[in-house]
Amino acid sequence: MSIVIALLELLLIIILSYISYNECIEIVKLKRSKGSMSSLYGKTMEKFAPFMKKYRHDPKKFRFIGSPIDGVQFDDDKITFVEFKTSSSKLSSAQKRIKDIIKKKNVYFEEFRME
After folding, report:
1. Per-residue pLDDT band at 24 (split at 50, 70, 90)
2. Which candidate, 114, 80, 75, places its Cα nearest to that of 99?
3. Do the Cβ atoms of 59 and 51 come closer than 8 Å?
4. What is the DSSP string of 2-59?
């Protein structure tokens, strides 16, 4: 009788392990899907952000770049590099580097003539 109980316990452990493994796989898939949807949401919203009420510049003077920053705002008296973020997203290392370059005023205008 104790062998039967031991086999049933072993079978139960195997079944629970299999269920737990499959649940873990589903959780990983859901997290990836959520991350992918979050990224897609961010990429969609950054195209509309200049037209939101909270955006403090003239959206007609915004030029979308996409990468490594979202765009450039050309106001009458200044030029602003703009990166739109949703939720708790953070600047990438490339975006941080660009921000540092701008803070150091290491930004130039170059005219290139094709003749």
Report:
1. low
2. 80
3. yes
4. HHHHHHHHHHHHHHHHHHHHHHHHHHHHHHHHHHHHHHHHHHHHHHHGGGSTT--S-G
Q: Which amino acid would we find at residue 74?
A: F
> Which residue has better confidence, 76 or 3?
76
Work out how many domains the chain is built from and give that number: 1
3-state SS, residue 94: helix
Would residue 110 count as lying in a domain?
no
Distance CA 53, CA 76 (A): 20
Q: Which domain holds residue 79?
A: 2-103
Counted residue by residue, the chain has a size of: 115
Alpha carbons 43 and 17: distance in angstroms, whole number: 39
